[in-house]
Structures are given as structure tokens and as C-alpha cells.
Design brief:
Length: 118
């Protein structure tokens, strides 16, 4: 299976359990891996035969800016749903990282994998 990826995709969203976290958006880093059904675009050179990662990034950025969640699990699940349901990916892995939010921890977050690898 071919996999499109975005690394260190930075967005801003309100996320967290605590009052101090919910006052303003905080930066989140996302690594997104998007499985493709086939490799047609590699032969056709046509964007209509694949998933446009620019459109995926735009959609996720807009979604995150318009929502607020308590848990990284919930944001990750929604992102996986968007990639699979709106862009038709058979498989997705979302790695979501909060930065310097806990003393002594550089990054923390979640890795969510949904769907099947072909
Ligand atoms: N499993 C989780 N545990 C925690 C989360 C989370 O999203 N999922 N979030 C927090 C706080 O918001 C944290 O980011 C700040 O200390 C704590 N535990």
C-alpha cells in the first residue's frame, strides 16, 4: 500500500482537561499517514486519482480551529474519521503531540491507527 504522509503538521486548538489549558489555543504537532487504495496517480499524474494532502491539511486545520476537546484521544479519533470518511482512505495513522505541557516531558500524545492496510 502506498502511504501519503505529513510530518510535524502544526495546528492550534483548544484541548485539555484543565481550566488553564482551555483559555487559549495551544500548538499541536501531527504526523499523518494516509493509506491509498491504489497507485493509479503514479501512472496518470492526475491529482483526481489520489488524495490531495493539501486539502486534507486545510480541512483538519479548519476543524481543529473550530472545535475544543478535553482529550487527545478525541481529537485524534475525529481526525482519523475525517481522513477515512471524507477522503476515502482505507487506512490512517494519526500521531498527535502536545508540546512541553508537562514538567520533564518534551512531548506527549497519542497514536491512533484505523482501517486496514491493503
Ligand atoms: N489519556 C489522556 N490523559 C491525559 C490527557 C489526555 O488528553 N489523554 N490530558 C491531560 C491534560 O490535559 C494534560 O495535557 C495537561 O497536564 C492529562 N492526562
Amino acid at each position: 500500500m502506498d502511504i501519503l504522509f505529513l510530518r510535524d503538521f502544526r495546528l492550534e486548538t483548544i484541548i485539555g482537561l484543565y481550566e488553564w489549558e482551555r483559555k487559549a489555543p495551544q500548538p499541536i504537532l501531527i504526523d499523518l499517514e494516509i493509506g491509498l487504495y491504489d497507485h493509479k496517480a503514479g501512472h496518470s499524474d492526475d491529482i483526481r486519482d489520489t488524495i490531495d494532502y493539501g486539502k486534507v491539511a486545510e480541512r483538519i486545520r479548519a476543524f481543529a480551529a473550530s472545535q475544543s476537546f478535553h482529550l487527545v484521544e478525541t481529537l485524534g479519533e475525529h481526525i482519523a474519521d475525517i481522513v477515512r470518511n471524507e477522503f476515502g482512505a482505507p487506512w490512517v495513522r494519526v500521531t498527535l503531540r502536545k508540546l512541553a505541557i508537562m514538567r520533564g516531558v518534551k512531548e506527549l500524545g497519542i497514536i491512533i491507527e484505523r482501517g486496514s492496510r491493503l
